[in-house]
Design a protein that fits this description.
Layout lengths: L1 E3 L10 H21 L4 H7 L6 H21 L2 E13 L1 E8 L13 H14 L5 E7 L3 E8 L2 H8 L14 H9 L9 E8 L8 H10 L2 E7 L6 E2 L1 E3 L5 E3 L9 E2 L3 H10 L1 E6 L7 H10 L4 E12 L1 H17 L19
Parallel strand pairs: 3-4, 3-6, 6-7, 7-12
Antiparallel strand pairs: 1-2, 2-13, 4-5, 8-11, 9-10
Length: 345
């Protein structure tokens, strides 16, 4: 089995296109500067030891070295010992509302960001459990399939925003239906669905969906993000301008927590409803409740030891750095008259 110990360092690969652009611009401006002194064919004859290809070759060597250093920092690891272990845990799927109403700021910094922060902390406390994430608004999508790779889960979590689902609305029932089909079918682990939303369901029968989930052995909990008093929904326009969403009559829309609906969903799903506040979201309380449930002991094959392989990548990077150092930008006496493109008559 292969994995990265520090996958977040892979984001550094994004600097490579920037380096390429800077190199191309540097070569262009160098050429423009030389043209100011006269005709390039004459200037090239006055500088017989100047090479056009060696700077490119040195840049390629340096870029390859940077790539291997980044992969070394990511700590590639290979599983070296496979064992059967017995573990107790639960499968937890979180259905996160990403409709525009989740941008309301009655819970700071806003409902969606606070939910993401709470989910991230929940993942940090997991050990033998598995987690999946569904995002929903007018439609529902699997953002993270059920997994025990918590690092990957947190990486995907950070990219979630209200634009990730194109159809606006709040279809809680659709999210519950999708979750029912997203749990591992053959797993006997305890299954729990946590719906995080402001509860303003406009699309379907979420209560019926929760009851069906409970009949299939899936406990449905709900967390209400927002306040009964509600708050306007800020929307970002061009040039950083913020406006508030309005209805068809031009009135500012106030998004309010539908506590009663979320309580009914949780009751019919065999779970509990918790209302979030600025001091706590309730995810930790639900996680404690899930941990208190009787969990079946499962036997799994897992890699218990991993061998680090970053040393080899650093060695390759060092080789290319040495090549970059020893390859001079100037031609030597032997190569100054050598031209692979020259055709002898």
């Amino acid at each position: 089995m292969f994995r990265f110990g520090n996958p977040e360092y892979l984001y550094l690969l994004l600097i490579l296109p920037v380096l390429v652009l800077l190199f191309v611009l540097g070569q262009y401006y160098k050429k423009m500067a030389l043209k100011k002194f006269g005709d390039m064919s004459v200037i090239e004859q006055l500088m017989p030891f100047v090479s056009k290809t060696k700077p490119v070759l040195k840049f390629i060597f340096l870029s390859i070295a940077i790539i291997f250093i980044i992969f070394a920092l990511s700590d590639p690891q290979f599983g070296s010992k496979l064992e059967k272990v017995k573990r107790k845990g639960a499968e937890i799927i979180i259905a996160l509302d990403v409709s525009n109403s989740m941008l309301a700021e009655d819970i700071k910094p806003n409902r969606l960001e606070r939910s993401k922060q709470a989910i991230s902390k929940l993942i940090d406390n997991m050990e033998n459990d598995r987690i999946g994430l569904i995002v929903f608004a007018g439609d529902s999508y699997i953002q993270i399939p059920v997994t025990s790779d918590f690092s990957a889960a947190k990486m995907f979590l950070s990219s979630i925003n209200t634009n990730i689902v194109s159809k606006q609305g709040t279809a809680i029932g659709s999210a519950i239906d999708l979750a029912m089909n997203s749990f591992t079918p053959e797993s006997e682990m305890e299954k729990a669905l946590i719906v995080i939303t402001d509860g303003e369901n406009h699309e379907d029968d979420a209560i019926k969906a929760a009851k069906l989930a409970q009949e299939k052995g899936i406990t449905v909990h709900t967390i209400g993000m927002g306040s009964p008093q509600g708050a306007p929904i800020p929307l970002q326009k061009g040039f950083g301008q913020t406006i508030f969403q309005k209805d068809k009559d031009g009135n500012t829309v106030i998004s309010k927590l539908d506590q009663r609906n979320l309580q009914e969903i949780a009751t019919n799903g065999g779970g509990v409803f918790i209302r979030a506040s600025n001091s706590q979201t309730g995810l930790n309380k639900l996680f404690e409740r899930i941990n208190e449930m009787e969990k079946k002991e499962m036997e799994e094959k897992i890699y218990t030891e991993f061998e680090h392989r970053f040393q080899y990548l650093l060695g390759i990077a060092l080789l290319f750095i040495l090549l970059d150092i020893f390859v001079l930008e100037r031609k030597n006496k032997w190569s100054k008259n050598f031209n692979v493109f020259k055709i002898n008559a």
